[in-house]
Design a protein that fits this description.
Order of helices and strands: HEEEHHEHEHEHEEEHEHEEHHHHEHEEEH
Distance between the termini: 74 Å
Structural class: alpha/beta
Number of strands: 16
Largest sheet: 7 strands, mixed
Strand content: 15-25%
């Protein structure tokens, strides 16, 4: 055997990182600690000695439920009652009473027969979508082009034939469905709220197409559960279409403020995923202390709309302030407030200045999370962001826009 030159693994990895730096896409993780009971105030340990006070503007803990006294008390009680970890997979000692209680609450939240929890929203999407398609002989999946990476991974790992339809384009979806025989199993996968642009899927119309073409539907509600509907059931509850969606997927780590993911559907589908999905079967279950916190959060938000109302008011106020100041805030009909920059290096620069000089923490969003040329800052104002905080933020942004010679919009 001829001996060739040894592979320089370090050089290959170094080049991969250098590419990210050259494109302005290298991700820096900012080290912070939130202040319990005082969020969005936090402490930052990045780039200086000791903690520096900051205000967090990019948390997915949309309703500040991770700070809610009921949630913290429930977690403390569980910790002292059963200890830290779950002890294993759901099949091997990790199926606690907390888990079954939470799944019953989640099923009820979405008007479904059953629910199943996972260690994260990513895992719930990947495990469910990859398993579903394998169980349906010859399944063809129709996926919105802006679906989350976890959905794309699940679809890819299923090995099923895939058709991608243009974002929220019902005519294109119809055209693709028409190309597949009516007796072929079909699954339409989409999100309710798309978290980068803040727009909403036409769920009822997608369900109409599913009925017409004999398809099942899978709706990712991770950015909507807790946030919309009278009990926090998401856009499907708000628009009274939850019963028409076959499988609703959600997260426990955003509006509910803790950690984990789940699906809700009829009992047979849940049993199939529970029995066949490796991502569920072979994962240690969520720690009871986390599940207890989520359980308190879900129950509270079923009864209280105060947090949702305050968050929506904050988002509306911040969008208007940005528009009035000429900042290029993107159109959004939800709680997401995206501010378009259009350049990865400048987006990172703005983020760095905000943190270093103004104590404002917001991360830049770059490719592949958003398309090239659509880089942005993504703000998520919550119930505890005050009008004064918003005015200070907008003033800082206008100053930085001027400093970097970026263009402001003229007042209408």
């Amino acid at each position: 055997m001829e001996l060739g030159k040894a592979v320089n693994y370090k050089h290959i990895f170094s080049q991969a990182i250098d590419r990210l730096h050259s494109e302005g896409r290298y991700r820096v993780f900012i080290e912070i600690l939130r202040n319990k009971g005082a969020f969005p105030n936090a402490r930052c340990f990045h780039g200086h000695n000791g903690p520096k006070p900051i205000i967090v503007w990019c948390s997915n803990d949309y309703l500040t439920m991770g700070q809610h006294p009921k949630v913290i008390a429930a977690m403390e009680e569980a910790l002292h009652d059963v200890g830290a970890g779950s002890g294993g997979t759901r099949n091997i000692s990790g199926n606690t009473h907390y888990h079954t209680e939470l799944e019953a609450e989640l099923a009820d939240l979405h008007g479904k027969e059953s629910a199943l929890t996972f260690t994260s929203g990513y895992v719930s999407n990947e495990a469910t979508l990859s398993t579903l398609a394998k169980l349906l002989p010859g399944c063809v999946i129709f996926s919105d082009e802006l679906n989350h990476a976890s959905m794309i991974a699940g679809i890819r790992n299923s090995g099923a034939e895939k058709h991608v339809f243009r974002h929220n384009d019902l005519d294109h979806l119809r055209e693709l469905l028409t190309s597949v025989p009516i007796d072929t199993p079909k699954l339409i996968a989409f999100e309710s709220v798309y978290s980068m642009d803040g727009d909403i899927a036409p769920i009822a119309e997608i369900c109409d197409l599913a009925d017409e073409f004999n398809a099942i539907t899978y709706c990712d509600e991770v950015h909507a559960v807790g946030m919309y509907g009278p009990r926090g059931g998401g856009i499907t509850e708000r628009d009274d279409v939850a019963d028409r969606v076959t499988i609703i997927e959600g997260t426990l780590g955003k509006a509910f403020g803790v950690m984990g993911g789940y699906i809700a559907a009829d009992q047979m589908i849940i049993d199939c995923i529970r029995s066949y999905a490796p991502g569920f079967i072979f994962s240690t279950s969520l720690a009871p202390v986390l599940v207890a916190g989520v359980l308190a959060s879900v129950r509270h938000l079923k009864e209280s709309s105060a947090e949702r109302d305050a968050q929506q008011a904050a988002a509306t106020m911040l969008k208007q302030m940005m528009r009035d100041s000429g900042l290029p805030v993107m159109d959004s009909v939800t709680h997401i407030v995206p501010l378009l920059v259009g350049d990865p290096t400048k987006a990172k620069k703005i983020s760095d200045i905000l943190l270093a000089e103004y104590g404002v923490y917001v991360q830049p969003i770059n490719f592949p999370t958003v398309p090239r040329g659509k880089e942005r800052l993504r703000f998520t104002p919550g119930p505890a962001h005050s009008e004064e905080m918003m005015r200070d933020l907008v003033s800082a942004l206008v100053e930085i826009w001027d400093r970097l010679e970026l263009e402001l919009r003229k007042a209408a």
